[in-house]
Structure to design on (346 residues):
């Protein structure tokens, strides 16, 4: 079997408000992985235009996601932080993958069905082909590990299917060009921890999302301490005190969600949280949750505001990261062209 150097890649869309789900399910975990892996973190602006975007908002939000990465603790000098549209090889490899992935595979993608809704005929072709671009994001670096929230699982399975089919369909040429029995790794999704699916604060059956019309459904990364406190105090709960065992949370989605959020913010397990808070009424537990949420999130919001006041610095970080990403991506893309039989200048 071909072996691949361990490399982490992940991306966040610059659409709408970054929220606690993005932080706990993804960005906070990106920060941790910096100590053990080489990491590439991408603001996926080309994914954003699969849905309508106001250019001014998009421009600001690209900088805002970058600011969130930096404020959360990602170090752009040790790792790579960049925006997708500055590295053209993502789109180039996505075209190749459009020719590898099968219509039947994309027809199964639940995110397309959710986002396109009833008016599917009117959805952009880009929204449909989105998973191919996502596979290209990862595989243009031949990344081996991808930390994401639960909602991205199906897309990562598709990424593995695309890598496998490419490796099979071009196996002779891959070997001929000295890449052994596989050119692309079968990427490992890393979906771990208590907060892989943070739910809405208003409805424990719905995912916390950027597009929910109710701002009270989510905690935004830019919320100040008072807003965070208010949203947690208003969060939907039930009438029972907290149980002593995690099994007791099973039919209680709102309680389960608040305990998971507490656990993720404080780096413990839900069982640990219940050990300390069993029997608490929600009024008391919510006060404790406000304290930990404000302590963790308010400094990030402050730092994001400080960074957003200096867009020149953010743009320089993205330009530097993009230049380094382009070197790696060009290497993969040249090899792909050789494997496919394209003629290229040398
Ligand atoms: P996006 O921008 O919707 O979300 C960014 C990250 O946040 C996670 N996430 C959540 N985690 C827990 N609870 C939630 N409620 C919640 N909501 C969002 C997402 O799982 C994701 O990890 N398609 C991707 C972006 C992307 C990408 C990639 C990711 C493009 N190319 C390559 C990894 C690798 C997306 O739309 O994420």
């Amino acid at each position: 079997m071909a072996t691949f150097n361990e490399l982490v890649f992940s991306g966040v869309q610059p659409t709408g408000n970054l929220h606690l789900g993005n932080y706990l399910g993804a960005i906070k975990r990106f920060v941790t992985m910096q100590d053990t892996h080489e990491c590439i973190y991408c603001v996926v602006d080309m994914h954003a235009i699969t849905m309508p975007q106001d250019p001014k908002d998009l421009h600001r939000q690209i900088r805002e996601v970058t600011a969130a990465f930096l404020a959360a603790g990602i170090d752009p000098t040790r790792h790579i932080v960049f925006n997708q549209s500055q590295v053209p090889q993502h789109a180039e490899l996505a075209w190749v993958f459009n020719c590898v992935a099968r219509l039947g595979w994309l027809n199964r993608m639940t995110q397309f069905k959710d986002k396109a809704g009833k008016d599917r005929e009117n959805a952009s072709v880009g929204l449909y082909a989105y998973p191919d671009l996502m596979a290209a994001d990862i595989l243009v670096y031949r990344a081996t590990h991808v930390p994401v929230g639960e909602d991205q699982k199906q897309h990562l399975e598709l990424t593995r299917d695309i890598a496998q089919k490419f490796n099979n369909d071009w196996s002779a040429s891959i070997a001929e060009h000295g890449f052994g029995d596989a050119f692309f790794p079968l990427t490992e999704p890393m979906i771990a921890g208590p907060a892989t699916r943070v739910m809405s604060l208003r409805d424990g059956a719905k995912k916390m999302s950027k597009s929910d019309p109710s701002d009270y459904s989510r905690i935004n990364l830019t919320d100040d301490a008072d807003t965070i406190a208010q949203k947690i105090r208003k969060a939907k709960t039930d009438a029972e005190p907290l149980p002593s065992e995690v099994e007791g949370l099973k039919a209680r989605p709102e309680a389960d969600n608040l305990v998971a959020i507490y656990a993720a913010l404080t780096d413990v397990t839900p069982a640990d949280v219940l050990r300390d808070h069993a029997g608490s009424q929600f009024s008391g537990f919510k006060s404790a949750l406000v304290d930990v949420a404000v302590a963790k999130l308010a400094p990030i919001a402050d730092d994001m505001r400080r960074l957003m006041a200096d867009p020149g610095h953010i743009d320089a970080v993205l330009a530097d990261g993009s230049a380094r990403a382009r070197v790696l991506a060009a290497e993969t893309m040249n090899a792909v062209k050789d494997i496919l039989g394209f003629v290229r200048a040398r």
